[in-house]
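ok so heres the complex, two chains, lmk if somethin looks off
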Amino acid sequence: MTFKRVAAASVAALMVGSPVMADLVFPSLSYRTGPFAAGGIPYADGFADYMTLLNERDGGIGGVAVSVPECETAYNTEKGVECYEATKGQGALAYNPLSTGITYQLIPKATADDIPLYTPGYGRTSAANGDVFSHVFNFPANYWNGASAAINHVLDLNGGDLKGKKIVLLHFNGAYGKEPIPTLTKLGEKHGFDLTTIPIDYPGQEQKAQWLQIRREKPDYVLFWGWGVMNQVAIQEAANIRYPMDQFIGVWWSGAEHDVKPAGDKATGYKAMTFHGVGSDYPVFADLQKHVVDAGKAAGDGSNVGTVIYNRGVYAAMMLAEAAKKAQEIHGVADITSAQMRDGLEQLEITNARMAELGMEGFGPEFKVSCANHGGPGAIAIQQWDAAAGKWSLISDFGGSDMDVIQPLIDADSAAYAAENKIEPQCN
Amino acid sequence: MPEQLLFAMEVTLNGLMAGVLYALVALGFVLIFKASGIFNFAQGMLVVFAAMTLVGVQTGQIPFAHLINTIFGTKVHHFGWTVPTILAIIVAGAAMVFVAWVIEKYILQHLIGQPDIILFMATIGMWYFMHGFAPLMWGSEVMKLDVGLAQGINETIDTTTYNWFGYGFFIDNLDIVAAIVAALLVTALVLFSQYTKQGRALRAVADDHSAALSVGISLRFIWVLVWSIAGFVALVAGIMWGSKSGVQISLAEVALKALPVLMLGGFTSIPGAIIGGLIIGVGEQLFEFAVGPLVGGATQAWFAYVLALVFLIFRPQGLFGEKIIERV
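and the predicted structre for the whole thing:
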């Protein structure tokens, strides 16, 4: 009798403890610790919660449960690569590395392993060229789209004429922060504005010199590519020198609630770019609340639902889930492989009708991925902060970017990468 | 007056103010090093923990809420009250005294007589422990710190300098407050060490541990005292820096700004920390203003260290540090 009990308990423990072999696995390389945790936590929560919603509400994707094993990177490139190596053997279908540094390291590895990388709004911009970067997808927007969208917004505000205007790019002094410089330089030549770049070194806790320079030069607009504590300090310093907040525009990584709240009321009017909707006024969030948060299955405590970075995690998870569904359709199997997942990403089509079905109507633009275009439409909206209301509001539609300027830059950069790595075009 | 000269004057003034903020962090290092010979690697984390505790208490946040909720399935976050700023500062100060007691009882007490490098390694361990413990206790979100300090441009200085030069200087009100607080803090520390029994005991321990012990001074009490004072200095630094950026784990990075200040001013001199901070503050701001544009900018991150390196070559003990001669 005792033996039977032990055997039964062992079997039960094994059933509980072992992973379900047929799970669709999307590892989450998260950073819940370290100096960037304030941004990493809501993103990881949003990503995990959406996948949990699919499991709880829909029984997974195509009837197959989804699992999201988390691996802590602390936003550290070496740890990120270790996480990739540690989790790829679990049957990983795709990676969302959540760091430009980790992405750069993983591009050759993941390509060799036949595992796609999905890097929405970060990573290597020229990976939008699917002809060269067969396993990297960065739709719906990248940093060069962002630079162009910011200038388009400024053009709208100035009747289409920027001749003689002064624009400052205040940026993190690293690869991520320098990404928009080539695009802005070209756009400056095209539209006749003067571009000044002002770098800030990590961590960016002291920015007095930069903001004194901005005060002296009196630029018409300041564009901002920051991350972490750099964001809060920059917004506070802008308020201190009384720089008009509605002329201060951050990239999407500089436009979260925790970036503006420390500056209080003075942050009102600050703008940021976004490639997805803001707030929780979409049906999908009611489902998340009901099936995930209220059911006690949320990755966090539920307080981040509807915040900017949480929404970005939800959006990224939705894209991967839709691509997995597409892959199941293409190949006629439910248990897809990473190679089939890559096909799903490459043939993904997001329509307004589908977004409405997902409870996300208007949350993002409609677009179609192709073999050559892994970058999507580059459609970006502008959001603006209202401190009194304590929320962001979209003040523009999702508009396109200047591909006449961006496409040659993408082509040149990806061609250089292809030549360096002896990559043959894949879309012939 | 030439425009560039006016700009340089403004940059110099702002550099002095930035230097005061660096000095506030450096002071904590000096106090502990002076009294115990320990280079406290964890001082930056003390700044974070002090500031987090202040905001947590002030806003009525439940400590370890995330842990409690995970274990018990509850959804508690706040007590539902807020605490007046002064009371919250007192509670945070008391928490730093408790931290000092814990450090003495559970770490330092067991390492008496060990080489300095062992004590230094222990403070690295403390840094890592607190790096995990502080967010576990108060969360990883950016916490807004509002203790009623004025921020933004000082109108009087702006108007006065505009009337004088035709160009209004920018000086942040918070920086002025920080300078006043730093001056009061240094005065209080000097008075404490010169005119109180505990202060004299502290100086005696700093001069010679064995001699101090032989005349009945309690080394344990002095260590708790000096770590408590360093904790209070960390709280002040946390208030100033946290008001600028919100309170978050990356506040610990301000310690990086204190290292060149210490190299310059000396590890054992309180006035040295202030003078070193001012030199670093002015130097890096002026260098960025004059040379930064020629070399791509963002020179502040390395300029202070290069300056400190130059000082190390010619005066290893720093400007005000004691020359250490060891018999071999």
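quick notes: Residues 3-314 of chain B form one domain. thats all i got rn
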